[in-house]
Design goal:
Layout: H1 15-21, H2 23-47, H3 54-65
Length: 68
C-alpha cells in the first residue's frame, strides 16, 4: 500500500495583521508612545527656559536674608 501523506498548509498570516490582532500590544504601544513623546517634549520645554538673571537672584537672596 502506498502511504498517502496529507499536508495541510495553513495560510500565511501577514505580520501587520498579527500586530493589529494583539489588543494588549496595541494598548501598550498606545500608552508607551504617548508617554515617551510627552517626556521628550517636557525635557525640551525645560531645556528651553532661559536662565534666571544674576541681579534678580542677588536681590531675592537679600530680601530673604532680611536686608532690604
Amino acid at each position: 500500500m502506498a502511504e498517502v501523506r496529507e499536508t495541510h498548509q495553513f495560510p500565511r498570516i501577514p505580520l501587520f495583521r498579527l500586530f493589529l490582532d494583539d489588543v494588549m500590544l496595541l494598548l501598550f504601544l498606545g500608552v508607551a508612545i504617548y508617554a515617551v513623546s510627552y517626556l521628550i517634549w517636557g525635557i525640551m520645554e525645560i531645556g528651553s527656559v532661559p536662565p534666571f538673571p544674576e541681579e534678580l537672584k542677588q536681590q531675592l537672596v537679600q530680601q530673604v536674608a532680611g536686608g532690604s
